Amino acid sequence: MADRETPPKKHAPTRIRRHADDHEARLYFEQIRWPDGPVCPHCQDPRYMTLREQPGSRSPVRPGVYKCKRCRKQYTVTVGTPFEGTHLPLNQWLDMIRLLCESREGINARHLHARFGFSYTTACSALRRLTSAVVATQTTEMPAP
Ligand SMILES: [Zn+2]
Prior knowledge:
Layout: H1 22-33, E1 48-50, E2 66-68, E3 74-75, H2 90-102, H3 109-116, H4 120-141
The protein binds zinc ion.
Zinc ion is lined by residues 40, 42-43, 45, 68, 70-71, 73.
């Protein structure tokens, strides 16, 4: 009987774990997007400042907002991603991505509506953003013929 060797894995599967809240999910997302620290999505400069609340300021500083030292624009980890400008917390986005990756039959807006409890319109919008991102990723990763 011949020994059967397991072929080496090219890529270890990355499993997206559940995140308790938006803050934890944001830190996870920052770690994936910026493994060497934040990079400005506007000018690609890695130098940044974190914003701090000024004494007497009436507007609170949102966590995860950085300011580029070069172009002076503010940004978060979601700028330039499908999650930019949405009101859904990042932990729900990550849960939706995990669900999308683990589902054998695929998911539809009705699944998202039932699972996460947001409106059907929001579920459709979220699904459209996710599928557009998947298509864009597959298009850019396709080898040349
Ligand atoms: Zn910049």
